[in-house]
Each structure stands twice: as structure tokens, then as C-alpha cells.
Input
Amino acid sequence: MARFKAVVITKGEAGTSAALTSFDEADLMEGDVTVRVSHSTLNYKDGLALTGKAPVVRRFPMIPGIDLAGVVETSSHADFKPGDAVILNGWGTGETHLGAYAEKSRVKGDWLVPQPVGLSAAEAMAIGTAGYTAMLCVMALERHGITPDRGPMLVTGAAGGVGSVATALLAKLGYHVVASTGRPQEADYLKGLGAAEIIDRNELSAPGKPLGKERWAGAVDSVGSHTLANALAMTRYGGAVAACGLAQGMDLPASVAPFILRGVSLLGVDSVMAPKALRLEAWSRLARDLDRARLQAITSTIPLEGAIDAGKAIIEGRIRGRVVVTIG
Output
């Protein structure tokens, strides 16, 4: 069995720590497909795992990284053969199953989807769970009938991973995007993604009224807490908010007023355990609907050894857009 480079999180009396080390292939977990990983990415959840800021990791030692792109090395799964280009998002990798910040990963074939035709491995990881989640949010809003002619669309945490891709997707699909950010210096960046308006997150992040002025037909929210409550309170009659994150908090200090007086819907979006059919649809849409030039504009690249420092940076709000981790 070979040894390979991996970032490994261990736990001691002083807490958790992450380090780049050599890992034995014999210690990989059970799975019917072994992937030689070429790229991963950096999500907020990866930052939580790397820094130990939240109990994301459920077993130790753990290789973090919830996304991977690579090539199948060995497989006993009927859908995949050696040489196939694949991607993986979620399914507990980096939390309960050894994850992507390593040159090899052994996983269940049912967790994998084929890399979409026309997307490179680096582009797939520039999208990553953040972009794939953004697409799931857009699809949920579309299913609810929130089309561009219904009115503006709010995106919270717009300079982050989910927010950046959501802004680019919605703009290309013809929506009038209102981008909320706590970083006013990112206004030009967000306008470059297609945002029509920029608002300060302080308009949404403090405790608000049960109902506010009707401002948007829908929203993609990755922030939670007071921000989500205010987004709901300002959603127009019959509108909807797709919620997928908790950067501000897990709480929802809202009232029932938007739901029973304006018929607003709260659409919960989960990317970790989403069924395969939904994943395939989302990735097909991303390959078709996401502007590649805008994707490239929001993407930076780091080597595997830079992932630990980048994890700290994303938790501290010093990362914008998407970060691709080059591994193999």
C-alpha cells in the first residue's frame, strides 16, 4: 500500500489541530471506489473543521475536505471504472468519512457523480459545494414559481462562496439581483458578477420588525439568524426564501407574520444528502447556466499545503468568492 500527502486533523487535550502529513492508503475507510484526487475546494464548513471553531468533525483522526474532483483508480461499483472523471460533494466526507484534502480518497460509488462534459476538474471545484448549493437554491425558487418577472432577488452573504455563485447564476438567468454584503469594498466585484444593487448587511443583520416593506420576490440566504428573519419580513406577497446556511447563527428570531399575512414560503435547501437525481440535475444546470468567465473571475487557487491557513481566513471573513485547492 502506498503513502500519500494529506491534511489530517487530530484531537488532543488542548483541542484539535491540523497538519500536512503522510497518510497510509491502508488506513482509508471502506468504499467501493478509490479516487486519485486532483482538486478540492474551500468551503465555510471546511474552515470550521480546520480551525475547530465548530464540532464539524465527528471522528479522529480526520482528513477534512467535503468536495473532491479526480479520476477513478479502482472500482467495484457498477457505474464507475478506472479512468472515469468524477466529483463528490458532501455525504459526510470530512466529517464522519475521510475527506478530500488528500491525494487519494476511498468512498461509496453512490456518492459520486460523473464530471459534467465541458467542465474541467478545476472548474468543478471552483463551483464546489458552495456553487452546487447555490444552484439547488435557484432550482427550489424556480419550482416555487419565482421567475425574473416577479421582482428583485436578494442574495445575502453575497461576497462569499454560495453568494458569489448565486449572484452570477441569477444575473445570467435574468433576475434583478440585490446583493447584501458586509464588505463595501466588494461592490465592484459584485457588480462584475451581475448584481444590480448592493446593500449593506447592517440593513438585515440587526433585530427587525415582524413585517417590513416588501422589497424582493425571493432570496437566497446563507446567513441565517436575524438576516434570514429580516429577509422573510421584507419578501413580497407569495414570495419565497431559499435558506442554506448559518454564518450569522442557527437561530431564526422571526414571527409567523410573513407566512400567514403574505403567504411567504421558507424553502430549506440541503446539499449534503441530496438525492442523486437532484445532484445530476444541479450539475447539468451549472455546466449550462453558469458563466465560465465570471466563475474564473471569482476563483483563486492554492496548493494543498495552503489549505490550513486558508481555513482560518474563511472563518475570519477574509475570503471572497471561491478557492480551489490543487492536490494531485
About this structure: The longest strand covers residues 3-12. Residues 121-143 form the longest helix (23 residues). Residues 168 and 193 are 5 Å apart (CA to CA).
